[in-house]
Amino acid sequence: MARRSAIPPESFEEILAWLNPDREVAGAMYVQLRDDLAKIFIWRQCADPEGLTDEVFDRVAKKVHDVRPDYVGDPRLYFHAVAKNLVKENIRTLKTHVSLTELDLSEELTTEDQDDDADLHDCLDECLQKLSSDERELIAGYYSKEKLAKIKHRADLAQRLGISVETLRVRAFRIRGSLAECIKRCLERKRK
C-alpha cells in the first residue's frame, strides 16, 4: 500500500512531465531523484531522510504549477534547492530541541507526575498486549534504533516482511495511531 501523499495526482503528473516528457524516463528520473535526495539527508545526518524526501516532493508539488512555466534548466536542481532549505530548517529545529536523555527530570517530578508516568507505562503495556504479535514485532522493530542505524534497520525490517519501506512506514503510523488512542482511553479510565 502506498503512503497517503499530500501530492494531488495532477501535481504528481506535472512533476513527472517537468522531469521529462517521456513518462518512462520521467519515472526513472523520479526514482533516482528520490534516492539522491534521501542520500543528501543521510549525508547531512538528518533524523528522517525518507520523511524529508517526501516533504521535498510535497513542497514542490504545491509550487510546480507556478514554477514550471518559467523555470530554466534542470528541474532536479530545484528539488535539490528545496532539500537544502529543509536541511537548514532541520538544523534550526534541532537547535531548539533538547534530547530527553540529556535531561534529569527525576528531581523535578512530583509524586503526581511519577504516578502519571507509571500509569502511562501501565497503559502502554496493556495496549501493546492488545496488538497482534506481528503488530507488536513491527512497531517494536520500527522504533528500536536511532539516527542512521534506524534507516538501515527499517529497510532490513521492510525487506524481512516483504514490503516496501513506504508500506512499513504507513503500517507503523497506523499501529502508532491505534496505540495512542488505546493509551488515551486507558489513561482516562485510570484517572476517573
State the main characteristics.
192 residues, elongated, 76% helix, mainly alpha
Determine the fraction of residues in helical runs and give it as a percent range: over 70%
Straight-line N-to-C gap: 40 Å
Main pleated sheet: none
Could you state the order of secondary-structure elements as H and E?
HHHHHHHH
- Mean model confidence by pLDDT: 82
- Helical stretch tally: 8
**Poorly predicted residue ranges:** 98-111
Strand tally, please? 0
What Rg do the Cα atoms give? 21 Å
Question: What shape does the CA trace take?
Answer: elongated
Q: What count of domains describes the coordinates?
A: 2
% residues in beta strands: under 5%
Structural class: mainly alpha
Describe this protein's structure.
The chain folds into 2 domains: 9-96; 108-191, Arc Repressor Mutant, subunit A (Orthogonal Bundle), CATH 1.10.10. The protein is mainly α. The longest helix is centred in the last third of the chain and has 27 residues, at 165-191. Helices cover 76% and strands 0% of the residues. The two termini are 40 Å apart.
Task: Provide a brief overview of the structure.
The chain contains eight helices and no strands. It has 192 residues and is mainly alpha-helical.
Indicate the topology:
Elements: H1 9-19, H2 23-43, H3 49-67, H4 75-96, H5 111-130, H6 133-142, H7 147-161, H8 165-191
Helix pairs in contact: 1-2, 1-3, 2-3, 2-4, 3-4, 5-8, 6-8
